[in-house]
Amino acid sequence: MIPDLIHYKYDPRALAIGDFNDDNWPDIVVANYAADNIAIYFGYGNGSMESPITYSTGSGSAPCMVAVGDFDKDGRLDVAVSNFGTNSVNVLMGFQYEVFANQTTLSTASSRPIWIHATYLNKDTAIDIVTANYGTQSVSIFYGHGDGSFAKSSTYPTGFDSFPLVVVSGDLNNDNQMDLAIANYGTNTVGILLGNSNGTFSKQSTLSTGPNSHPYSLAVGYLNDDTVLDIAVT
Fold it and tell me: Where does the record locate the signal sequence feature (predicted)?
């Protein structure tokens, strides 16, 4: 069992799974909103977990989402955290067995990043980071350099009072370019940003989810046995 240290008082907001110590067993990383930290639970492979190792994300950071990927291409999984309270993204690099080091911070200005997504957006071999920005009604893209560093963010508006909560990626129009889909809670829409060949994105188009639907989450996948990605929204 997972140790009973995931207390409600820490206000855990999100988790992600990955093998962080290269033992071929899945581990769990949790964003603890009220505790201003992330906690990593290393798995034994039998359903039980070690007591957590925690890493501070900064006073008042209020981390609310985590994403994993090998951002520096060293063969070890790293963790990216969206900090709602300090308008930033923290990137923690996997260093050695059960140790993370070299935490770096990326500014998202005054955006209140509520969601983070790690993916390949521009056809290189470096993982990029996307945030959904609740405070500025936008999404921000940090293109990775493949060494753990990132370019200054590019930001795309999602509309007045859209209050985006989630952003995911996929090739939605079969042009071999990655696109973005956004759950716009405030405007009852799914926003679509189509990717261009030069690494930029087109102006947002929207799909209505119905009056007062307030889309809270979404996912993309092949749902009806054709070759076109579909979107599921809640």
Answer: none
Confidence of residue 2 (pLDDT cuts 50, 70, 90): very low
Task: Write out the residue limits of the CATH 2.130.10.10 domain(s) in the chain.
Answer: 1-157
Share of the chain above pLDDT 90, in %: 88
Q: What is the C-alpha separation between 15 and 176, in angstroms, rounded?
A: 30
Cβ of 224: how many Cβ atoms within 10 Å? 6
Provide the token pair at 169: 């990626």
Q: What is the distance of C-alpha 217 from the center of its chain?
A: 13
What pTM, to 2 d.p., does this model score? 0.93
| CATH number of the domain located at residue range(s) 1-157 in this protein | 2.130.10.10
Tell which phi-psi region holds residue 4, choosing left (phi > 0), alpha (psi between -120 and 50) or beta: alpha
Task: Provide the strand spans (E) within the chain.
Answer: 12-18, 27-32, 37-41, 53-56, 63-69, 78-83, 88-96, 99-107, 113-119, 128-133, 138-142, 154-157, 164-170, 179-184, 189-193, 205-208, 218-221, 230-233
